[in-house]
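My current task is to audit a protein record that another person submitted. I need someone to confirm that the token line plausibly describes how this chain folds. Take the sequence as given and treat only the tokens as open to question. This is what I was given:
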Amino acid sequence: MACGEIFQDGKGSKECQWFKNKEKVNSMRKYILFVLFMVLSCINTAGQQRLKPFRQGDRVAFVGNSITDGGHFHSYIWLYYMTRFPEMRLWIGNLGIGGDTSTEILNRLEADVYGKMPTVVALTFGMNDSGYLEHNTDTASRFREQRFALVEENYRKIEDILKSHSARVIQVGTSPYDQTSRFNDNIYQGKNDFICRMIDMQRESAKKHGWEFLDWNKPMTDYNIGKQRTDSTFTICGHDRIHPDNDGHMMMAYIFLKAQGMAGKPVATVCIDAATQSVVEETNCRLSCIERTEKGVQFDYLAAALPYPLDTIARGDMMFDRPQSRIKTLVPDFMKEFDSETLRVLNLKKGSYRLTIDDVVIDTIQDYRLAAGVNLAEYVCTPQYRQALTVMMLNEDRWDMERRMRDWAWVEYDYFLKNGVKEADVLSPEACCMYDRDKQSSWWLASRRDIYAKMGNKAVRLACEKYQDSIVDEIYRVNRPVTRHIKLVRVK
């Protein structure tokens, strides 16, 4: 039956159009909900992965290429441990070198990685092994077979080295090359498919040897595809489809920490009954001196952890322009899962209450919101969040120095060592002449001339290492939570 046959009063076409528009709106709503469901489902695949948490005293070496070398994921993971487990001291190191393939990783694994005495080695590779322009040629298939044979040969030797040491091994599938986003047409077709073939090799190796395995590639690729259903230009993989920005590195840290079972662990949960001056709940914290006042309630609060600070500044490489804090947009449940510091106060008189912590005014909040619970970690002005920011800034300073030393590692392992020059001879006249000759044809060598002049000196390197150690000492001094005085005063 046609619409015009239902409405015979002259309004048929308008009413019919209304129904058609409503159907379009409903269809669009269903589509948006479907896309949202797919995006969240893709992220939640991270929750199906399992890794053991780090332990007191662990020395964790993240081995990789430029994504590790110039990225923040390892620093963000350590920042979580620094703030959530302030008494659990460990070390998490960036052992990446830009441009590395499995060949370079194999050549430096003993000296550069195991020389740091790790208790945990997390290995990722494949972005450079998989090639670039070769994927857009007529010989792409042959290239992939030849390259995979080389990678497999290298990996079997890496495997033997990993087996020869007692350190725990985590095989990590690299973050993806985004071959689906349409922000430009510069795409190496099939590159990520080839990367996944190498990741499958890692997965099987982990299974064979009883090692742990984590995949960044699939959840991040699925996330990209889910978002690209509504925005074809979206990518979590950076401006070059390869290097995730700070938000992408925070997603990598999120996937890693979620696999370690950290999702749902609160900073603290506080619930008190203002009428009876009693504790209803104190999770990961201790409450004391609860006192009902003429206009509200006050008490002392000592948490066992600090909130997780999210940087609002885009740091690192000059091509990075997205801050770590953007994770809250990418993962809407991030604060609920990883940064929940809940304050609930029951049986307050109806009205609005001024919340102060250590006499710092935080907000004015109505009684029913306080009864339902507010997340203190959402407030960047709380004394405990400001304390966490101090930890974050110190960790950033440590990251900066670590990056300089990784630039030196590139010069040492991927240039001098490859050319037969040993550590003791890198500042010899012969080595200097060789460097100055070769930098004429290598912009990368030329850009690292100052690093070479400074870090080639062992005394300078030792001083830089001591500086990093002193920062870590300071972090584990200032990251201890202290007792805070919380006061709620009714203002209207």
Observations:
- The radius of gyration is 27 Å.
- Residues 284 and 302 are 9 Å apart (CA to CA).
- The first helix runs from residue 3 to 6.
- DSSP finds 17 helices and 14 strands in the chain.
